[in-house]
# Entry
Amino acid sequence: QLQLVESGGGLVQPGGSLTLSCAASGFTLDDYAIGWFRQAPGKEREGVSSISPTGSSTYYDESVKGRFTISRDYAKNTVYLQMNNLQPEDTAVYFCAAREAEYGGYYYTEESEYKYWGQGTQVTVSS
# Structure
């Protein structure tokens, strides 16, 4: 059974950091593009960051550029989202998603392009 599991969320003060993990089971992520999305209360889910299967190409939404870093560990079959200088507006449920990529250097930014989804992890930024 193909499954994605997010972890690493929690409560952090403004300016703090968290690292989210997206671990896959039932399949290897080597050929999959991964995206991180978030959904704040009362808002639609939005794309945050994406990474290609090779890791050579990455995407960041303007709202997180310079603060978030996406990476992947092939040995651990896991993708990470390092989040620094977190702000209250980053509060949301964060989801990771996966899909097989057309080629290794390609990533996807739209929610509809992804096939597999995790259950989400809550990130709350508050003093």
Q: What stands out?
A: The longest strand covers residues 92-100. Residues 28 and 77 are 6 Å apart (CA to CA). The radius of gyration is 14 Å.
